[in-house]
Amino acid sequence: MARHLGSRVQAATVIETTFIERGAAPIERAEPLSSETRTSAAPTRSVETNLLSGPITVPSPVALGDTGSELHPLGLGGSLFGWTLGTDDSERVLDRFVGSGGSLIDTADSYAAGRSESIIGRWMASRHVRDRVLIATKAGRGAEHPGLRPEAIVAAVDASLERLRTDRIDLLMFHGDDPATPLEESLGAVGALIDAGKVRALGAADFPPDRLIEARVLAANGLPRLQALTAEYSLMRRRGFEGATELVAHAQGLAVLPYFALANGFLGGNVRRRSEAPRDARGARIAAHLGRRGHRVLTALDDIAFRHGCEPATVALAWLLTRPTVVAPIVGVSRPEQVGALLAAASLPLARSEIVELDRASA
C-alpha cells in the first residue's frame, strides 16, 4: 500500500550552511529547491527564497529501523569515489550533500578496492563532520577479507575503520549472502563488534527472504538483529524486490535502502536513444531499458515533473519514497550540481493519481 509522501515531511527546518564548523573547509551550498516543489501537502516554514542563493528546505529526518539514528530520506552512494571520481571531485560531492542537509553516506570495503572509504575518511577528518553523518559500509566482498566468516568480518571492519579514520561504523552491512558460513557465526562476530563499540547496527545487502527469516529467528535467541536491507529497486526494477522480499522486510520492520534507484541513471531521462548512451558498461545497462516499457516510464516521469517544476529523477525517487518499506534510496552522483535535484525528492509530495500513473507505466 503506497503512502503519501507528505507524511514524511510533517515538519521541516530551514538551514543555510556555508561552513561545517568554524575553521573547517567550506561546504558548497546547494541550489535551493524550487518553490513549485513545496506544496501544502509538505508543510515547511514560510521563507523568502531566491533561485541563486538563500535558505534551503530540509525535510524531517526518518528513523533507521530501531537503531535510534535518524537520517535525511536520501542517501549518498560512494561507489564512484576513487573509481570514476578522484579525491577532489568526490569531496565536492560530499560537501554539497552534507551542506544541503544529507546525512547517510553509503560505501563498502570493495568499492574501488577500499579507496572509496579512504576518500570519505579523509573528507570527514578535514571537515570535522564525523558526528553529523551516518556511515554505512559493507563487508563480505573485499579482496583482502572475503566472505562472512567471523575472522573475515572482524578483519574487514578493522580495516574499514582505519580507512574511514573513525572509531565506529554506524551501519555495517553483510555484502551479500555467504552460504558456506553458518549465519549464527556471522551474527555472533558482529555481536562482539557491537559490544566493543566498533559497530552500532547491522544490515544486509541482497539477502533472500529465507535468510532474512533465519536471521530474525537467530536474533530472537540473542544475536544481533538486522535493521536494514539494501536491494536493487526502482521503477525499472520492481519484480526482484516486490513480492516475498518486500513482504518479509515489511513484517520485520527493516529499513529498506534501495540501490540503483535511478536504474543506472536511465530514470534521469538524459538518454532517450541508444546512440545517446555512453559506450561503456553503464551505458549498456541504460540502453537495456530503452524499450516500450522504458519509454512509458520516462513519459510519465516527464509529465509529472512538468507539473511540479522539477527533474524526472526527483519524481522517480519520490515514487520510491511512497513505498511502505523504503526509508532512503541510495544514489550516486558524478557532479555536485546533481545533488539538489535528488535531495528534493524527499520534499516532493506525489498525488495518489500520480503514484498510480507511475505504477501503471512501470508494471
TrEMBL record:
Q: What InterPro entries does the annotation carry? A: AKR_Detox_Biosynth, NAD(P)_OxRdtase_dom_sf, NADP_OxRdtase_dom
Q: Where is this region: Disordered?
A: 26-53
Q: Which domain of life is it from?
A: Bacteria
- Pfam families, alphabetically? Aldo_ket_red (PF00248)
Which residues does the UniProt record annotate as the domain NADP-dependent oxidoreductase? 73-361
> Compositional bias (Polar residues) spans?
34-52
Protein known as: Aldo/keto reductase
Species annotation = Agromyces larvae
